[in-house]
Design goal:
Number of strands of chain A: 27
Domain Aminoacyl-transfer RNA synthetases class-II family profile (chains A, B): 150-413
Strand order of the largest sheet of chain A: 5-11-12-18-15-14-13-26-27-25-24
Helix content of chain A: 25-40%
GO molecular function, one term (chains A, B): proline-tRNA ligase activity
CATH architecture of the largest domain in chain A: 2-Layer Sandwich
Catalytic activity (chains A, B): tRNA(Pro) + L-proline + ATP = L-prolyl-tRNA(Pro) + AMP + diphosphate
Largest interface: A-B, 84 and 84 residues
Biased composition (Basic and acidic residues) (chains A, B): 92-106
Region (Disordered) (chains A, B): 92-125
Strand content of chain A: 15-25%
Oligomer: homodimer
Shape of chain A: globular
Largest sheet of chain A: 11 strands, mixed
């Protein structure tokens, strides 16, 4: 055991001050360090080995802090550890990666206004500002960034790979329900939206309207483009906010007989809604989604399908995203316009807010009637079809981020991680050719073993980055497992496992066992994240709370607060006016009538927490994104 | 051998007349038929067995005709066979499937104007009108249909599955080249398009312009929606016709050092160009595509990448679509605006027209300069990056259709077929429970064997359709192999193979060998289609032709003609003005300078076929879609 005398220095941009000279125990025997003085810019005077040592310490310290937090330690207990961590990091200022960027960043203001925040490698802790933490996690994991188009984001490769994994798996689940994929036009004639007034009311007003089909040079300045006045459309076109209108128009043509039913189609598409306040993944003007649309001969057929699909979403969130959800029905006032019943999965984010993560609508005959889609039954009678629609969006990525990530950045469940394992080889010394060869052989064999087992693995052999910078980068990107392997490890026939969350210690693993162990432990890690999230959801949902208690807890609850007031599961007498009053007073909405507790009739013998009348169901209230 | 006395009747919509009473030999011992008189509507008086027999005959006759045509038989030889086929078909008029539609089609004008053509099951032969044939094939295979949005199509499940198979395979090939997927916004600020004047000139004028972000009720009629005048955008937004402008705007932020290069990204997206004349898959206002964009530190890097990607496309077309292409460079006047070199793959359709099926552009520094994207080299010098872009679209599906399909409908290469095998079980007689059980057991085992081998198989057990109607439907959908299996087959431990094209005879196959044989023969069938297409391309490309000969061949060559004049590979002296003259006189364009013949310097010692000057390359001329 070593005792460290630490002083600290943090960038000025961080708006809090760390006291100097805090003494703290350092219990990792692997980190053979004696003493540092906290001099800014010391990194440049350090040898590579010394730097690697400090980087190791930083990692260990971070792990300790996370373990403490996970074990429920309070702020006061954690604080000195955090200070020590910041102090360690200060030894390496300016860090290697940003330095490179500074060197090449001589092009002046070319990068535009948000240059500073792009280069800054600081993640705001959740406790400081949960909303900023969320943005920081996305930026530093390079999942997405803002775009020059208002309210739309650019999904970068790391975010896109996650979406592709999600889509691939969800697509299989959907096709498994005998649904076929189609593709309908992006643009919908405006007249279509007037067909179903109720539908329009609920959806389509804030949307992008295409009025012209050509650009031309402006009369005063031909190099300046304008919409050509001579190319105005007779009927404007709308960019789809959702595709019910155009799809049901086809259903009318496609469906004549009961033999055409059920008809189940789905499309993966981009849609656009003119949102005023946007947040990456959670709410953007353009987003990616799947929209399923089905038609059935019977009310039961539609109802069963709507229930089945919300179940598909629930299973997906649990299996793939390690994200527990509360499944239930929406109250009448929160239903999709035109739906007889809306089913929802609601997830609890780490700030205690709810996130509606997927919905499935039992449309009854409303669209069948509105779009005149009828079928002839085997007894020759003709009647309107019953319908459903259901969808999930890129929002699921936001939900996943806010379920698992921590103050060190993104945390990815293995099943949705573009790379499940990153291997960082520690190069042999320059003249050690034999060591280099053996390292390469062991590395190749390890990669082969992992790839054969279907593990998505990345070898980070960039020669211009220090190991610590690599660790830092992959940690922020949420890669579940890092494997370090150097000449000394190879001599001992081992490599070193370090998990992003979960096990706090590094672990030495025999090379011959490594690939199997990875597979086994990736599964355990996935379970661990799910269990953690389940515990948080259970712990964050209050029962037996009075309305006044809820109100006082929610009165100052904002998205930026962490941890927030959480969710409230209460006995309820269904009443839209009371729901509206609660919304006004608490900003909380009725998220759903959860299925499980209502199936158990937990409300029986209880009184509505708001009206005092006999409760007829359990309701989940909470703030929501 | 049987002699058939035939009379014929064809629907009035078919605009040619078949003489009655032609005598013709019928050589299939399997079809145990004696004699029919060609009475309209006879089908309703036939027993099921009789109907099945006629259906079998129709199939056999169709196969004979295709075999004759494939063997190069002339029209006169084929004609009586066609007449016999039509006569056979007439026995079953009205056919089972359309009859059902007529029964339930009592809803009057509900289906809209093109009701008739939707229900009509006639495919116009290529020789009658190639363009109509193409539309008929698409309609009757249910790949796509027109939409209420001008110029946009609805891709139906069969077409969408093909696109998904195509996308999945192409995506792997692209990622194999170290390209990462991203997603950029659909809408692009109008000002972006003015940044690269040359780029705008080539591309962006005919595009959809978004000018408003809200709908509202019209002042005179609040139930009628209009674009809200209060919600006009300060700067209009363009629906991407291609994404260079917005992607290079990000490149400027993402690239600073040579370490950031090469940067290779791709996106799968919908794009929109306001096309005046559209054809499904070949040219639609909205279409689906992938667009790859790369940045490099050197001119060679960009140039190699552009060449490599056109090679990826060429291999894909050959491997997956069984479609040979001619790879080459575009002439300067046909280059992508801003490109230093445009590489293209050109395919020959069955009417002899060319179809540009994919392009790859070496952009040099033009976009690096236009968008101020620079990088710092290791020697600290700063210079603009070099770029490429490359893409393929849903047009590839149109190319595939027109390469393989025939007068019986779609023909799909197995690798791109949503279903590679359709099994049509012939049910046991009503009281034959043992037969039914054995049939089910054999069927299940066959399906299991095929599925285990990765074969995409469909069992068509619809009980309300006759076998013949099923055969007819899957033939039109282009499924490579049909397997028939009935109680008698099961007793003999066999099933019956019938290929969509290729082998003309039905073949009895031992059940235990069937799955392996399917796998082996699907590969052979894929090769067969590719060989056929190669032979057609070779046969359809003329060498050693004078300009006057070409002109006289092309003067009446229209898309609707089959087979058309084909392509012309000629010695050429590069000259844009002459190219333009040829375009005016022949409507033919210079498709490319084909790589292989130019690598061989086939032009050496020859004179330009137009100017008579010494040729400096070989050029491919032709009409093009």
């Amino acid at each position: 055991m070593f005792m460290l005398q630490l002083t600290s220095r943090i960038p000025l941009a961080r708006s809090f001050i760390i006291p100097r000279g805090i003494s703290i125990s350092q219990s990792r025997p692997k980190c053979q360090i004696t003493r540092f003085s906290g001099v800014s810019g010391l990194a440049s005077q350090l040898t590579n080995d010394e730097v690697a040592q400090i980087e190791g310490q930083i990692k260990s310290k971070g792990d300790e802090i996370r373990a403490l937090k996970d074990s429920g330690a309070d702020k006061a207990t954690v604080k000195p550890f955090v200070e020590e961590l910041l102090s360690l990091k200060a030894k390496l200022e300016p860090p290697a990666e940003p330095k490179k960027k500074q060197e090449v960043g001589k092009k002046g203001g070319k990068k535009g206004g948000n240059n500073k925040s792009d280069d800054d490698d600081y993640i705001t802790p959740r406790e400081t500002d949960y909303s900023t933490w969320y943005s920081d996690v996305i930026r530093h994991s390079a999942m997405a960034e803002s775009s020059p188009t208002r309210g739309a984001m650019i999904i970068k490769p790391w975010g896109m790979s996650i979406w592709e994994l999600l889509r691939e798996d969800m697509d299989k689940r959907i096709k498994n329900e005998d649904v076929e994929n189609c593709y309908f036009p992006l643009l919908i004639p405006m007249s279509f939206l007037t067909k179903e007034a109720e539908h329009v009311e609920g959806f389509a007003k804030e949307c992008a309207v295409v009025t012209h089909h050509r650009l031309t040079g402006s009369p005063d300045d031909p190099t300046n483009l304008i919409a050509d006045p001579a190319a105005e459309l007779e009927e404007p076109l709308i960019i789809r906010p959702t595709s019910e209108t155009i799809i049901w128009n086809s259903f009318r043509k496609w469906i004549t007989s009961h033999r055409d039913l059920p008809l189940k189609i789905n499309q993966w598409a981009n849609v656009l809604r003119w949102e005023l306040r946007t947040r990456p993944f959670l709410r953007t003007s353009e987003f990616l989604w799947q929209e399923g649309h089905t038609a059935h001969a019977t009310a039961e057929g539609a109802s069963e399908d709507a229930v089945k699909m919300i179940g598909v979403y629930e299973d997906f969130c649990s299996d793939m995203l390690a994200m527990p959800t509360i499944t239930g029905k929406k109250s009448p006032s929160e239903r999709f316009a035109g739906a007889e019943e809306t089913y929802t999965i609601e997830a609890m984010m780490q700030n205690g807010w709810c996130l509606q993560s997927g919905t499935s609508h039992d449309l009854g005959q409303s669209f069948g009637k509105a779009f005149d889609v009828t079928f002839q039954a085997s007894d020759s009678s003709i009647s309107p079809v019953y319908g459903t629609s259901w969808g999930v969006t890129t929002r699921l990525i936001g939900a996943m981020i806010m379920t698992h990530s921590d103050d060190s950045g993104l945390v990815l469940p293995p099943k949705i991680a573009p790379k499940q394992v990153v291997i960082v080889p520690i190069p042999a010394k320059k003249n050690d050719e034999e060591g280099a060869e053996k390292l390469k052989a062991s590395l190749d064999s390890l990669v082969k073993g992992l790839t054969e087992r279907g593990v998505r693995v990345k070898v980070d052999d960039r020669d211009y980055l220090r190991n610590g910078a690599k660790y830092f980068e992959w940690e922020r990107k949420g890669v579940p497992l890092r494997i370090e392997i150097g000449p000394r490890d190879v001599k001992n026939d081992v490599c070193v496992f370090k998990w992003r969350k979960w096990k706090e210690d590094k672990e030495s693993v025999r090379l011959e066992d490594a690939a199997d162990k990875v597979v086994e432990e990736l599964e355990q890690y996935q379970e661990y994240l799910l269990d953690n999230a389940r515990a948080r959801l259970a712990g964050g949902t209050r029962l037996d709370v009075t309305y006044d208690e809820m109100k006082s807890l929610l009165v100052n609850d904002e998205a930026s607060q962490y941890p927030g007031a959480g969710l409230f599961l209460v006995p309820w007498k269904c009443d839209a006016a009371n729901e509206e009053k609660i919304k006004e007073e608490c900003k909380a909405t009725l998220r759903c009538y959860p299925k499980d507790v209502n199936d158990m009739k937990m409300f029986e013998g209880k009184k509505c927490f708001f009206s005092g009348e006999p409760a007829d169901r359990m309701a989940l209230f909470g703030r929501a994104f």
